[in-house]
Amino acid sequence: MSTQDKIKKLTDLRAEAKLGGGLKRIDTQHSKGKYTARERIEMLLDEGSFEEYDMFVSHRCTNFGVDKKKFLGDGVVTGQGTIDGRVVYVFSQDFTVFGGSLSETYAQKICKVMDMALKNGAPIIGINDSGGARIQEGVTALAGYAEIFERNIMASGVVPQISAIFGPCAGGAVYSPALTDFVMMTKKTSYMFVTGPKVVKTVTGEVVTDEQLGGANIHGSKSGVSHFIVDDEKEGLLLTRKLISYLPQNNLEEPPIAPCDDPIDRLDANLNEIIPDNPNKPYDVKDVIHSIADYGEFLEVHRNYAQNIVVGYARFNGVAVGIVANQPNYLAGVLDINASRKAARFVRFCDAFNIPLVTLVDVPGFLPGTAQEYGGIISHGAKLLFAYGEATVPKITVIMRKSYGGAYCVMSSKHLRGDINYSWPTGEIAVMGPKGAIEVLQNKKIRAIEDEQERAEYIAKKEEEYKDKFANPYSAAQFGYIDDVIEPRNTRFRIIRALQALATKKDVMPPKKHTNIPL
After folding, report:
1. Which residues are catalytic?
2. Are 57 and 181 in a shared domain?
3. Within 10 A of 179 (CB to CB), how many other CB atoms are there?
4. pTM of the model
5. Inter-residue long-range contacts of 249-254, CB under 8 Å, 24+ positions, other chains counted
6. Which of 70, 132, 330, 374 is spaced 20 to 30 Å from 19 by Cα?
7. CA angle, 390 as apex, 384 and 392 as ends, to 5°?
8. Which 3 state secondary structure label does DSSP give 241?
9. Does the pLDDT of residue 292 top 90, yes or no?
10. Enclosing H/E stretch for 420
């Protein structure tokens, strides 16, 4: 065979590999509103940057006659490329080949790029669209999943890991995305569950659809498994690029700094008016975030889950930060089980990857009730407490209004190694709200007053006294627990100054193998 013949053979094999399961299956994929594995990679990465590995790998299985059908690449496309010039490693499952089912060699391909990502300190992005383990391969397919899980665990806290679910993801396959830092799902075309609707019906008698059991809206709002819900794959891939822009390549690097000409001393007079005079009246904390962040930009994470707390990424003078904020617009911003878990996970990710934390506080306390206590609010609330206390990144806290009881301690207080803690003049820092406090402190006296109007006047007077003495920021400031009481319109400037001051911060943990967070 001549050199030209050999080159032609290579060209033909490459063309065959790029067709995956063939044109008919590609058309079927498109008819479902889904892109192919390679099309997804092209949309995700910088144009022309993709370097593919293991294009010619095929499975080695001989069971059930599966050896008579082989496809180059074996159902997953793997390699490296760049996003805005920064290296990332990617694998994209190909549903046109054996329904994207995972084989031994398929798993080895994924493990190879994960190993390279870990070795070279670059993010891993997995695009999932698979029918699960390849049944014909038996235990070798299961072993392949476990090999991937182990690498997810080794990479955790070392390089960012992002999972995009653009099709089915069921059984053991769900645990790799669950081990990664961010999970994204598309409406109507993706789902995740440990056991499918047929098994559920057989075991429990419940009749549910794929969407009802594990669709994007379910995992985005009820379970919290998915961090982002997108309308379609194109939006998801663009969002992945945006998310990567806030993250460092690995745990030894700082997050990228973006050029910024938004003035650091930009004032927003609206912030001086945003806190209602009535302490029970809500407002939208996202208005505060958009006001103080560079260009008003905020990438929210877990938007539809535990909406009483808001988390996400913004920039201050080009520096990427993680924002955690109580949301008075939803359940009065109270901390509950889901909010604690959501925020704790976010705080720990930011700490692992050197992303400073800005915490905006307006919290009346923890949600009371049997449902919360039986569900373990003590342990779940402790997760958030643990995450903040453990974090060594710069931590800046702004108390905007309420900061009561244990929730004051938990929300990045000075006592959990908060670096710079501010309060607005509207801050209320106390063991509990005036009404509850007076009911406890003056219970006997109140009950002794028989006249209803006189009783009401007495309660109002005592509540006002309590507010003057405790429900303000100055008592905490006297003890140095608040570093300064600031004018709301100056918040952006003061946060940026604080970030500049903390840029060289070094905080260490006592030597240990690892912590034992209350899971």
Report:
1. 171-172, 406-407
2. yes
3. 18
4. 0.94
5. 249/86, 249/87, 249/121, 249/122, 249/123, 249/159, 250/121, 250/122, 250/158, 250/159, 250/160, 250/353, 251/157, 251/158, 251/159, 251/352, 251/353, 251/354, 252/121, 253/121, 253/354, 254/354
6. 132
7. 125
8. helix
9. yes
10. strand 420-423
Residue for token digits 């049944």?
135
What average pLDDT does the chain have?
A: 93
Confidence grade of residue 354 (pLDDT, cut at 50, 70, 90): very high
Q: The domain containing residue 329 runs over which residues?
A: 269-432+471-501
Residue 514 pLDDT exceeds 90: yes
Q: Give the CA distances from residue 456 to residues 18, 439, 452, 462, 481, in Å, rounded to whole numbers and listed in that order.
A: 78, 12, 6, 10, 34
- Which residue type, as a one-letter code, is found at position 118? L
CATH of the domain at 212: 3.90.226.10
Q: Examine the domain organization and report whether 344 and 358 are in the same domain.
A: yes
Amino acid at 175: Y
Query: Letter for the amino acid at 244?
Result: I
Split into its structural domains, the chain has a count of 3
Point out the least confidently predicted range of 18-22, 375-379, 481-485: 18-22
Sequence-ordered alpha helix ranges (H) in 411-479: 434-441, 443-448, 452-469, 474-478
Structure tokens at 346: 């976010």
